[in-house]
Design goal:
196 residues; alpha+beta; four-stranded antiparallel sheet; three-stranded mixed sheet; 11 strands; 37% helix
Length: 196
């Protein structure tokens, strides 16, 4: 069985010496923890912009990169599924870049990292007592079940359809709740006038 370390390269996110402040004249966008969600993915609409200083040449994110959240109570991966211009990930992430897309689809690898099998592997190997974290070696040694590309593609499509369906159902539930609240409010209004 292949491991993440055999299928992809891993780099740490860009190191920032100070807290990240949004700069109006910033020429580099930064992905932070607030910009990612295991189900909604990467929200690049409100990324902070900064002016990078220092000698380290930034490793800009590319379509197909996977951002791995290695710290906290939710260990998960998010796929960069669109082209981003001059964007880096902060140091809270590992950036996983697939070596050969003929072996593994980035979307499948991101899905697999979030799947129960991989999550069980991480939960047995997390370090840290106050804030759990997964170190680089643990991530690199994650065994990956690798079906043929056509099967990987089918899994990714099914997963995406499931997320869309869930979002639609949640939206429908919220709209029904608002409709019901409105009807009940109008019902109460009929009787409030009698008491005044």
């Amino acid at each position: 069985m292949n491991t993440i370390g055999q299928l992809a390269s891993l780099t740490a996110g860009h190191p920032f010496r100070e807290s990240i402040q949004n700069a109006l004249d910033g020429d580099v966008a930064v992905v932070q923890m607030k910009d990612v969600d295991p189900e909604k993915g990467l929200d690049n609409g409100k990324l902070y912009h900064v002016r990078l200083t220092g000698r380290k040449k930034p490793d800009y994110l590319r379509r197909g990169d996977i951002l791995f959240v290695s710290r906290g109570y939710r260990i998960f991966a998010v796929l960069v599924d669109e082209d981003l211009e001059c964007t880096v990930a902060c140091s809270h992430f590992f950036v996983i870049r697939v070596n050969n897309a003929q072996d593994v689809m980035p979307g499948y690898l991101a899905w697999y990292i979030n799947h129960t099998q991989a999550q069980r592997y991480f939960s047995q190997r997390v370090a840290g007592t106050v804030l759990p974290y997964v170190n680089r070696n643990v991530l690199e040694e994650l065994p990956v079940v690798l079906p043929p590309l056509a099967v990987q593609q089918g899994i990714v499509k099914a997963h995406c359809c499931g997320l869309i369906e869930k979002a639609l159902l949640e939206s429908l539930i919220e709209k029904k709740k608002q409709l019901l609240e409105g009807l009940l409010e109008k019902t109460l209004e009929q009787y409030q006038g009698d008491r005044v």
